[in-house]
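Field reference: "sequence" (input) and "structure" (output). Example, Alkaline phosphatase D:
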Amino acid sequence: MTSLDRRTLLRAGLATGAGLAGGTLFGAADARAAGAGAHPPAGAPAWRPAGRPVLTHGVQSGDVTADSALVWTRADRPGRMWVEVSRRPDLRGARLLRGPVLDPSADCTGRVRVRGLPCGERLHYRVSVESLDRHGVRSEPLVGSFATAPGAHGRRGVRFVWTGDIAGQGWGIAPDFGGMRIFQAMRSVRPDFFLCSGDTVYADGPLAETVTLPDGRIWRNLVTPEKSKVAETLAEYRGQFAYNLLDEHLRAFVAEVPQVNQWDDHEVTNNWYPGEVLADARYTEQRVDVLAARARQAFGEWLPVPAGGPLYRKLSYGPLLDVFVLDMRTYKDPNDGNTYADPLRGLLGREQRAWLVRELKRSRATWKVIANDLPIGLVVPDGAAQEGVAQGDPGAPAGRELEFAEVLGATHRAGVTGMVFLTADVHYTAAHHYDPARAAVADFTPFWEFVSGPAHAGAFGPNALDGTFGPQAVFVNAPPRANTSPAEGFQHFGEVAIDGESGAFTVHLRDRDGASLWTTTLPAPGR
């Protein structure tokens, strides 16, 4: 990947652009582009920066399937996006795809859905943006790569990493402490994809220029205007994502590893739910629904996620793995004591809950990974109320536990096997085993929930376990005090490797430098 110095990135700043285009590759017949015309919209600024366009924040890919991938970039001005894709690292013989015009309506960001790809291969791509004023004048290109998912009948193994919680609790990019170096460790694993389990940014976490650590050392944050206050405007929410991409380790990682992103609370504000009205003097706009709409737009612009439709979705990686990405925010009920008996309330909402049960029953994958950005059995308080699924009462399911009792019971009765939950949120790493023999309910199949994080934020924990579903903490690695800085460690990611022959599911819970703190291997169901 062509290197970008920090000064160039800061100078490029946050103009504003958009678009989604589709194309085909390697023999597919219907190459096409959509979502933008040949000219900028009427709202585009009349002035143009001098010289060639500049790609300001690198390249990314996401939501890769067996035959397609999203490719993303951002320019410093309106321009036409072009993408070349090839099997070869030198891009010889690459297929050229005409992408959308990037314009201020989406902060000059844009995506191309590349279609017709060969399954189960590492492919290489190059992105540039062409000036709208000077035909043929293009930016310096940036390169990246991604691995497509195995086909429906492929037996290639799958390897991926997951974590969450990026740049939180006042701990931003500190070059003196190596920046967000956990992304370098994750990159060295060479995963097929990265599952970000929420808190992709901390829009409610302003950064100070310096923080004094307990041992007297000074943590010096790189600070931008958008990270100097809580995000309220669309430009400020966009600035949260732009900030993270100032880190060289993160930019190099996302250029090589496709992402699967879900959101949690800090993309908007701490512990939010629809309809909430804040009582926080830092905010001039206190209607959470207004803030969430702006945050959702920035999330969709600055990350390689599908445009439109719900955030919950299923991604298939051949016969070995289906990933079910949950949205535990958009349909969330208000935080209260979480002991109600109303089965219509919950975190997921009726439609998402029905979708999850239906798709789990339909799945024929050996393993069904459920990406739940809020853990099932850990108690996550919100002041005197409850933020998560559990509430600390080990008895029969109540409140939001009713939803998961329904999901677990319905899949158990349908004979669904191979369900594993992956989560973050609580800022430490742990392995929980759930068993009806220890639970207040009996009609579910034993399963594991693995917790990771933070990627680069304050470390906390451990949280109390709720006994309703019979969890046992088999492993925990948590800091000695609250909000331990990344300089002191306790930053974590998880790695999953599914063997192509045996189907065995191996989990490593790793630290910031990639050392394995704990591991286990789950045999494929029926073996």
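Residues 433 and 472 are 5 Å apart (CA to CA).
Residues 1-46 have pLDDT under 50 and may be disordered.
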